Amino acid sequence: MLVTSGRQLFYSVFAILALALVASAIAWYMGPASQRILVVFFVSLIAVVAQGVYCGNSGIMSFGHLSFMAIGAYAASLLTVPAMMKAATLPKLPHWLASTETGLLPAILVALVVVALVAIVTGIVVGKLQGEAATIATLGLLIIVHGVLIGWRDVTRGSGSFFGVPRETTLWVAMAGCVIALIVARLYRDSVSGLKLRASRENAIAAAAVGVNIKRERLVSWVISAVLMGLSGALMAHFLGAFSPKNFYFVDTFQLLAMLIVGGMTTVTGAISGAVVITIVTEILRHLESGFSLGFVEVPQVFGTTQIGIALLILFAMFRKADGLTGLKEWEERFIKPHRKAAATTSLQAAEPDGILLAKGMTMRFGGLVAVNNVDFKLMPGEIVGLIGPNGSGKTTLLNMLSGVLKPSEGSFRIADTLLDGVSSHKVAEHGIARTFQNIRLFNHLTVFQNVLVAALSTRDGEDAEGRAQTALERMGMSKFAEMDAGTLSYGDQRRVEIARALACQPSLLFLDEPAAGMNREETDALMEMLRGLTRDLGIGILLVDHDLKLINQLCDRIAVLNEGTLIAQGTPAEIRKNPAVVEAYLGASSDHEDAQRTD
Amino acid sequence: MEILLQQTVNAIALGGTYALLALGLAVVFSIMGLINFAHGELMTIAGYVLMYCGLAGVPFAIAAALAVGAAMLAAVLMEIIAFRPVRNASGATMLVTSFAVSMVLQVLFQNLIAARSQPVLLPQLLSDSVSIFGLVIGINKIAAIIATIVMLAFLDWFMRKQKHGIAMRAAASDFAVARLMGIRANTVISAAFALSGLLAGVAAVLWVSQRASVDPLMGFSPVLKAFIAAILGGLGSLRGAVAGGFVLGFIEIYLAAFLPASMQEFREPIGLAIVVFVMLFRPNGLIPAASLKAEKV
After folding, report:
1. What pTM was estimated for this model as a whole?
2. Whole-angstrom Cα distance, residue B226 to residue B233?
3. Are both A464 and A578 inside the same structural domain?
4. How distant is the Cα of B150 from the closest Cα of chain A, in angstroms?
5. Is the pLDDT confidence value at B159 over 50?
6. For A468-504, b where at least 16 C-beta lie within 10 A, e where not — what string?
7. Alpha-carbon distances of A35 from A38, A375, A567, rounded to whole Å
8. Residues of chain A contacting residue B297, judged by C-beta atoms under 8 Å apart
9. Which domain holds residue A204?
């Protein structure tokens, strides 16, 4: 399912087709040399967008993608090499493989299945690691596959050249493959999975909190990206006719990364422009490599001119344009106005009106520090409960435990009859708990609408997601900013978008961590009115953490007070105001009753 | 039994070198989140200094000191020239930058020095061996083990007692707060790079004294192993880096010694597969970095 304006996609696909056809026609006209350059360009471009599908959308760099290219190349070639040839060059091949001889298309299809299987296994392993560790794991993958290719002589001819592959990748075959890869990559970017993955790239914790299963989306993109990579490898093999494991190792990884990074790895536009720039630079430097004359000085032959040139280009890109030449947006996202039909507004009524949250003995220890100590807590849909306490008293930590972001050291909590101990953040969201964050955590480079849409898509099985997203935005008065990037909004508006995003999950309970921070009096009053509306109209229960005691006193049905990790009081605002323990925690032991009143 | 002991000595020597390299990577990573691909080129630089000193007839002890000093200087310069402009960028940006730096240096070595492997003159003593309890052990192996122990002891002291070491630990735990406490960002990062250069330099001397040659790619493959060691141990954790380095050294040497001949070709993939298998059960590494849990929400 796609989640973007069809109009933008139409222009994008049209441009891809047109560019590919025009380039092919020009190369066809110019002769074999140009055709060869273009075939290599097409095949490389497949690899670049393929890697972009994973790296760009997930934000995790990979050094291991060439292994999938290698697997694609070897697997497809083992099927297409004529049986006679195989008997001579690979005498120890298993009989069923030795006698098989297929055309290019079936060979590619089989190879892609093989690649997909390998990708599923490796993707699960890599998915267990976080950030940079995942990157290094992909490096390990590259080394492992390279080692297996060299060691498995009976099938791969070891480090020697694997030759005799029929040269069936013509200009038109390469073009067709490239167009398919570009379109798949472009559609994936704006698919449900792609959007969720991009949200997790922008902010993993927030994405999980609105219900995104990050591991699953990473695996999906890993497999798609690997399959496209395999396609590139198979086509490359049938263009070159002969290759060896070193074709799929560091030097080529470097070239590929250069294309990906210089253009901008998050978009198809970036992949194309990066591939064009690097291909042109490489062609120019290759001519200079063997030495040339400037008329008055002879420049001698310099090894690795292309490598240095590309490395400098990468450094330049990293220093000046870390997001790549084309930035973070597709060209059509910049120039074509999105066309979005207004979805019917729906009710964001609390999905589970009986979802009472009950927490018992919640405790969190960080090393020797007990941040939250044996706290019992209850929150019902339809009520507003304030959670107050001095800085460092454990309010946010309690919120983090109740939303599954932190795993409590001890204690358990349930919503209705479901025990939520040890349940990961994205599943807690499924059970009707949504939240905002003390330090705003929006998906800064996604539009406001996409921010909210991700939440709607990831909860309640994504049912009527567009409608819920639009309704949530309208409720918070943010519809007018729908197509702007969330990161460009003012502070107060960002807070409102965050609440809208939480509402789109259609929660029965909503945790707000300092929603009024940085808002002036009028804005705070408006916020208060809005929050009352949520409980009144939708039956949502709200847990509100804030330091604005006026807001808390006027809004809350009940107030809970934390001090040094311990729950020291609970009750109506009037009771809390008179509670001596609270007065002491806030104002010190010597303060008298009147001081406490003054803070109201 | 004798073979086992013999191979254990080899494993400690190799694992120690990996540990020093992984430690150098970890020191930098823990502070600025950069995985330095060009760490291997620091090693290569130290190797070439040894080579030139050998040609010039400089005594080995002085040559080794010069080599280590050159690696430290190169590390500090590398940070100032290449990594300072991307200091606050994402991990991926810094990683790619260091990858490019590594490529540039490799090509420079190829063109300015030599594309082929060059012999390094070593003192005769290093290629001698002694017999201890019936085991024949090369002096170079013993030197490597002693040097590793000395370096680890030094580093432990430095990090716990020395001002810059404590500053580094503070910066690793929370850079922003460390700066508010008056620790200068440039100083602590330069010191971290100098320290990683020191470790790479020592590792290079040990590496070269086993092999007596240096080539433009000399540092590349041991540092790849050090990457693996660093994540096996727990990325950003110093103790983890040491543990990961030794574990990897043991895996490699034992596989080389005890894997049947028909499987030897798959030694490297099998070794890495074992690492992966361990990681499945300890995804944050053998000794995870403390800062992993501390992310502010």
Report:
1. 0.89
2. 10
3. no
4. 29
5. yes
6. bbbbbbebbebbebbeebbeebeebbbbbbbbbbbbb
7. 5, 71, 74
8. 205, 396, 400, 405-406, 437-438
9. 6-247
